[in-house]
Amino acid sequence: MKRLSDERTKLVFEKLSKFIGTNVKLLIDRPDGQYVFREHKDRIYYVSEKNLKLGETIAPDHFVSIGTCFGKFTKTGRFMLHITALNYLAPYAQFKIWLKPSAEQQFLYGHNVNKAGLGRITESTQKYQGVIVFSMNDLPLGFGVAARSTAECKHADPLATVCFHQADIGEYIRSEDTLL
Q: Do 130 and 103 belong to one domain?
């Protein structure tokens, strides 16, 4: 596990701040200890310093991973969040979208969210803002990007797309062969 370079740290924090804003600081300085981001084979892991010190005792050639995989860098150098980061980001989300029960299954199959399936949306959500998608029971379902602002959603056609799909908890089932 190696430390992230300044450039990669900037890309990771930009992506995280798109979804949780300034709450990124709360991910690092937590009441239960200090947490850090580390890189291994182009994947970014979120791990406590305590566990990181224990992981240093493992030989590098026997090392697979430690902590929670937050995402990976693509071959083009972009950072993509993995769905495994959802449970850590959902409590700090600034912009949220809640889906009606009839639209949950479509979102979990990897489809975008239409206005007809929109239950609620956080006020002052801007167009192309990163959002966390929830069920009406406040269960986090995945990540998305707002296709319309809150004001535009109020006057949109029922079949208009209001949220672009990024990742969802159904990915575990759809791509179980390619996760590792």
A: yes
- Give the CATH number of the domain where residue 65 resides: 3.10.450.220
> What does the block give as tokens for 50?
């305590």
Quick one: pLDDT at residue 1? 77
Query: Is 90 inside a domain boundary?
Result: no
pTM of the model as a whole: 0.85
**Residue stretches of the chain with pLDDT short of 50:** none
Domain identity same for 99 and 80: no
Bridge-based pairing of strands 33-40 and 2-3 is antiparallel
Distances (CA, A) of 62 to 2, 65, 97, 161, 162: 15, 10, 42, 46, 45
φ, ψ of residue 135 in degrees (nearest 5): -80, 170
